[in-house]
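Progress report, Aim 2. The chain analyzed during this reporting quarter is listed below.
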Amino acid sequence: MSIQEFGALGEGIGSLLILITLVYLAVQNKQQQRLLLSSVFQARTGLVLDLSETVVIDNSFAEIVAKVEAGEELSAVERVRIRSWHYMCWKTFENNHFQNTLRVLDSSQLQTTELIIERTLGTTEGLEYWYDMKYQFRADFVTWVEDIIHGIEQEELAT
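Predicted structure tokens for the chain:
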């Protein structure tokens, strides 16, 4: 066997090894993506449970939420508590939107977030909070929420 034949054989083997490596990396990438999605889902679930626990365990906070939903006047302390709650909720919404832009969050979960935002904006407290604090959020998220608000306004005009 000549040097050229050895060289051709080496090129063939090298090409085959590169192909095997690429297949291996593709499988590893897919496994890492699944792990990432699982981690994001777990973190989001934990956050939602923590936020829900606030209302379920703390009766006084549940009473504040009931007052907001009934349109009753809040005390100064209650307003601070509900604004803190809104901040946590809006940061969660922003995170959901961001995760969706990264293609880590399923679009159906973002649709659920949109429905919750619509409900939140339907309260005086929620809408006031949004207009007071929207500068704290990412520009693309603000644009998305403003589009939701515009859609709500259009629906109200149509009815």
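DSSP finds six helices and no strands in the chain. The radius of gyration is 25 Å. These observations will guide the mutagenesis work planned for the next reporting period.
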